[in-house]
Write a structure and sequence with these properties.
Blueprint: H1 3-20, H2 25-40, H3 45-55, H4 62-75, H5 78-90, H6 96-112, H7 115-132, H8 137-147, H9 158-166, H10 172-178, H11 180-201, H12 211-236, H13 242-261, H14 269-299, H15 302-313, H16 317-332, H17 337-354, H18 359-374, H19 381-390, H20 394-400, H21 402-417, H22 420-429
Helix pairs in contact: 1-2, 2-14, 3-14, 4-13, 4-14, 5-6, 5-12, 6-7, 6-8, 6-11, 6-12, 7-8, 7-19, 8-11, 8-19, 9-17, 10-22, 11-21, 12-13, 14-17, 15-17, 16-17, 16-18, 17-18, 18-21
Length: 431
Amino acid sequence: MTVNTAAIAVLIGSFLIMILLRFPIAYAVAISSLLCLKYQGLPLGTISQQMIKGISSFSLMAVPFFITMGVLMGSGGISDKLLNLADACVGWMTGGLAMVNIVASYFFGGISGSAIADVSSIGALLIPMMKDSGYDTDYAVDVTITSACQGLIIPPSHNMIIFAVSAGGVSVGQLFLGGMLPGVLLGMALMIISYVIAVKRGYPKGAKISFKEAIKIASSAILGLLTAVIIIGGVIGGIFTATESAAVACLYAFIVTFFIYREIPLSKMDEILLNALRTLATVLALLACCNAFGWFLAYLKIPALITGALLGVSNNKIVVLLLINLLLLALGTIMDMAPLIMITTPILMPVIQSIGMNPIQFGVMMVLNLAIGLCTPPVGAVLFVGCTIGKISMEKLTKSLFPFYAAMLAVLMLVTFVPEVVLFIPNLLLK
């Protein structure tokens, strides 16, 4: 066994053992990196240098702003207003509350950028409401957790920013725009599956809302939705960068929450900032530790080995992309999204470059893959939160999720093999 092979075994082996032992991800990547460093006799300062380098990025400055903005809007009553707007749009259909759930998740995802925040807020309101209205618990939770994944690919998504940093300078603005159409397609696919099941099970229709009332509801929710417009419009118009747009949107969210909606007092700002800080601390710790791990992957030439292995199976682009999807789907079932993006992006970028895939398309494909993993046992965080709110076992819920998995995989295949699904809007608006 060569020195490099042994070092790879130490790095990957110790990491996998700690994952199986349910170590926190940040600890697993940090400890495995440290063990590899000691095995190779490198200076201890190497790890700290790479950890600091991992979070010393101008693009990453957008992350705390987006997180704070999401907490602000989520605490300020915007969830209720978005639910009312979604109800006015699609609540009249068969299985109306399921359709409301999906559309509200799309609206809320455009503000929070977090699937867990979506399930925690929208799900806490709609899952009990759906159960009381005669919907089965498994169906209510299925719709909630899968629709929450829309928020991970439509802007603003801090996971897209993490991918941009990991990929080495991919445009955040193009990634934001690239996720818009796949997000719409995902919502439509989930609505079709939800409708078919609703008709089969005989779920009720919602009440129709008059045009006058719909206008009133839309005017109440429009201020919250303008947050996403500020971000996208500012980037497309060249008014500010993605990072600057995050700061402007955060300030706007503060004004709307405390001085226009005024559903919570200004004294709650300390609590909001503390919640945002907890989330940010977790994200930055993961990013720092994963960057050190990623440096060792590059140092040991693991990306080149993976590229050779994948292309050794086949040089057919379709086969390689299917293998990458299978790899990401499998990894997504056992690890959270942010560390996986940090770890796998440097490994897989040489592969997708060798087959001529656009990095923007790959970024959306990766995030959608890992979003599906959040709804998949055994470690799916969104799945766990949904089960907790719906008071249903993970085993029972997983069986009923298969039609929704099929819808999500169909959209994933479109994103993977039809580049225009991702690239049409960026090419149209950022020429």
